[in-house]
Amino acid sequence: MKADEKKYFPMFVDLTQKKVTVIGAGNIAKRRIETLLSFAGTIEVIAPDACERIKELAKEGRLVWKEKEYDREDLYDADLVLSATNNEKVNNDVYSACKCLGISVNTASNRMKCDFYFPSILQKEETVIGLNSAGNPAKTKNVRKEMQKWIEEAGEKHE
Q1: Strands 104-107 and 80-83, how do they pair?
Q2: In Å, how far are 4, 59, 100 from 36, measured between CA atoms?
Q3: Does domain 3-113 have CATH number 3.40.50.720?
Q4: What are the extents of the domains in the chain?
């Protein structure tokens, strides 16, 4: 079976008491962090610079931003790691270190270096739906939009 033919099992994990470490602070990191904010206990971002939204979230106390270059020690107390830099050497090192430390990792730049895939999230009150299309983010986004519309319409009918 080819990698693009795989189906991935949707597994829901309690992150409320977990530390998520994100290496990188650009647009991909921002999108993933914004999704994780309502799920993770602690989010720590490691990057020498950050996009404005991540800086805002740090000022609001919603995440910890360490304004520095990555080194392996940043991973030692992480429960889950996202590597989202534009530096392939850093992403590869994060992946290798996480594998040695037994930490689940997602490397945004390389699907083959992921223990899990970041889903598209649809949330209504306490119900959470995670969507994945095995490597076609545009398809997943379209399905999420269709489902969101359907949920909103169904809600209007019951009001």
Answers
A1: parallel
A2: 26, 17, 25
A3: yes
A4: 3-113, 120-157
SS3 call for 35: helix
SS (H, E, C) 101-129: HCCEEEECCCHHHECCCCCEEEEECCEEE
Closest residue by Cα to residue 19 from 63, 60, 66 = 63
User: What's phi and psi for 131, nearest 5 deg?
Assistant: -120, 145
Rounded to whole angstroms, the Cα distance separating 152 from 146 reads: 10
**pTM of the full predicted structure?**
0.86
Render each residue's pLDDT in the chain as its tens digit; 159 residues: 455 566 777 788 899 999 999 999 999 999 999 989 989 999 999 999 999 999 999 999 999 999 999 999 999 999 999 999 999 999 999 999 999 999 999 999 888 899 988 788 888 778 888 887 766 777 888 888 888 888 777 766 665
SS3 at position 37: coil
Residue corresponding to tokens 């290798």: 96
